[in-house]
Target: Retrotransposon gag domain-containing protein
Amino acid sequence: MSSNRAGSDKVEIDCLKDSTYQWWNTLIAVVPKDRVNWDFFQTEFKKKYISQRYLDKKRNEFLELKQGHRSIAQYEKEFMQLSKYSWECIPIEVVMCNQFEDGLNEDIKLLVGVLGLKEFTVMVDQTNKADELSKAKRKADFEARDTGKRPMGKSFSFPSKKLKEFHSRTSASTRLSGRDKGKQHSSSRPQVTSIVNVGSVRNNKPECQ
Model:
């Protein structure tokens, strides 16, 4: 097969057995060689062996996926599994990031949404850090209530400091990743203000029928 994944593709094709293997050999015998690649195989295999109803069901599950009670790792795993049925819905990486962000729990989305991340690996990394920060804030709030103090008494200073550190580290990592080179953020603008304005960030959900 002519593909960037030629080596691994050949191994996977060789794993086909019996009638499926015969179907594939019959198909490629009548198809121009320059069309025979991994994408072609996936498309034809789905048409042959996977019903459209099943594909539609998985696509809808992907578009409606929410983190809920899942950990970030569990959410990412299910997101990637379901995304295989919905590549046409996330044609570019920034749309994939937006879809991942849209399914996050609100407390984590609040921290990540203002960053405008466009690389999926960076998105996952910063989401994990935001999750740790959110857990620390909830713990501080609980301890403040438990000791009879006002809810803001202890939680305000601790998460505020952590929040600034989170955005400081994020700014450094995004500059190193090569995105938005040359764009300078004003150091005088409080980080907490950007969190308050998270509602103004546009939520670009993929349009997929």
Observations:
- Residues 1-8, 181-202 have pLDDT under 50 and may be disordered.
- DSSP finds eleven helices and no strands in the chain.
